[in-house]
Amino acid sequence: MTSVMDQKSVPAFEKLYVGGEWVEPAGDAHIEVISPSTEEVISRVPEPTPADVDRAVAAARDAFAGPWRKTSPEERSQLLNRIADEVEKRVPEFAAVFAAEIGAPVALGGPLHGMAVQMLRQAAGLHERVAFVEDRVDGDANVSIVREPVGVVGAIIPWNAPVGGAALKLGSALAAGCTVVLKPAPEGPLTTYMLAECLEAAGVPEGVVSILPAGREVGEHLVRHPDVDKVTFTGSTEAGKRVGSLCGERIARVSLELGGKSAAIIADDAELGDVLPTLLAGGIGHSGQICAALTRVLVPRSRAAEFAEAMAFAMSGMVVGDPFDPATMLGPLAMERQRNRVESYIEIGRQEGAKIACGGGRPAHLDKGFYVEPTLFTDVDNSMRIAREEIFGPVISMISYDSIDEAIDIANDSPYGLSGSVYTNDQQIAKRVVSEVRTGQIFVNSHAVCASQPFGGFKQSGHGREGGPEGIAAYLETKMIQW
């Protein structure tokens, strides 16, 4: 389906991937793919309709009721490893197309898609870590606990990391024995259709996976569909509330991986040189378009000026520009409306009284593209909107504190609880922070997105986990059999 690519050419797709086959769409509308770095239309794909969703769900239901349900965990493991092999072969191509459609630098796209390979291989090994059948004795009775696949899964993923998001959900779902209808965001369709080519090459059986990049209407149809047993959603908290309410209406199983406003607590003993590399990558890497980004930086009041100067200097020196340039560190925002959103929050921060230590505008050397300068706010109070609401852009809010007690309180004073970090050489401080900050993951003297461990959050960051044995649990139903 794809053409031979040079560095900046992108594929075009004229058919939908439904149940393992490339088929004509039910409608004649198309989604235009707009380059965030040039603002030009670079490709187009067919726009699915609810009728296409119905066809995909029917194929998934037939496959689940048929041969796929009879596959063994070992057979599914082998399939996942074959998918990983196919993705791994094309990592440079994925990185190039990701740069074209989303604007992520190729230097970032390679590792991100390498992480997707790791996710698939991790899922392929779950059959060795999960007991699908467990025998027990209960008094005079023999009991078997059987963990069965939940059924047909509707999986909805955002545009910021389509292949990684798809790998995380597909890996667990397929390892569990489910079938999947995957709905990527319409802004990132090309890499997900390339993933479909990888599924095809790996020999995914008929009906087991469909991929339908589409907008909200199609997504709601999938969520409401009576033949979808479980919905797994990654996206904004507001959209997640809607998905959760729709699933609640029909008691459908649902997992939600939502927004974040994660805090990095920098203790008084932390060294600047030890903090800045992972702090800045964790805060504004991928231009801040990561749900687990460290967007609140909590520093001792006595060192606030020192950290503000160092962070502003480092952020101002980041290379912002063409995502195909290997020297580029930050690309554009993925779309115009996202740049508008980020710029509106920068203006809100000004009006709230926060000070801009660096950035705050569009890069002067770039006359096209949805670019925003890396922006650091100081003198931020945790009650300000820029400290409480997810911006999803290259914007960091620095907040001062007077004691570790206060820092922990500030970190927890948020509607979110997705990620976080603590930087200190004092093990007692580290142990206290990681035990008292209410968040789904927290790192000591580092920050990352871990592909092999459970990922998810507290509070309005969602519920459920993805990755690891904890991630597959959401795709299994437990049956008790007494003999």
Give an overview of the whole structure.
With 483 residues, this protein is of the alpha/beta class. It folds into 2 domains: 16-258 and 461-482, 3-Layer(aba) Sandwich (Aldehyde Dehydrogenase, Chain A, domain 1); 262-452, Aldehyde Dehydrogenase, Chain A, domain 2, CATH 3.40.309.10. The chain has 15 helices and 22 strands. The strands form 6 sheets. It has a 7-stranded mixed β-sheet, sandwiched between helices. A 6-stranded mixed β-sheet has the order 9-8-7-10-11-21, with helices on both faces. The longest helix is centred in the N-terminal third of the chain and has 19 residues, at 106-124.
A few lines on this structure:
With 483 residues, the protein is of the alpha/beta class. Helices cover 39% and strands 21% of the residues. InterPro entries: Ald_DH/histidinol_DH, Ald_DH_C, Ald_DH_CS_GLU, Ald_DH_N, Aldehyde_DH_dom.
How is the topology of this model organized?
Elements: E1 16-18, E2 21-23, E3 30-34, E4 41-46, H1 50-65, H2 73-89, H3 91-101, H4 106-124, E5 133-138, E6 141-149, E7 152-156, H5 162-176, E8 179-183, H6 189-202, E9 209-211, H7 216-224, E10 230-234, H8 237-250, E11 253-257, E12 262-266, H9 272-284, E13 294-300, H10 304-316, H11 336-352, E14 355-358, E15 375-378, H12 385-388, E16 395-401, H13 404-412, E17 416-417, E18 420-423, H14 427-436, E19 443-444, E20 458-459, E21 462-463, H15 468-473, E22 476-482
Parallel strand pairs: 7-8, 7-10, 8-9, 10-11, 12-13, 12-18, 13-16, 15-16, 18-19
Antiparallel strand pairs: 1-2, 3-4, 5-6, 6-22, 11-21, 14-15, 17-20
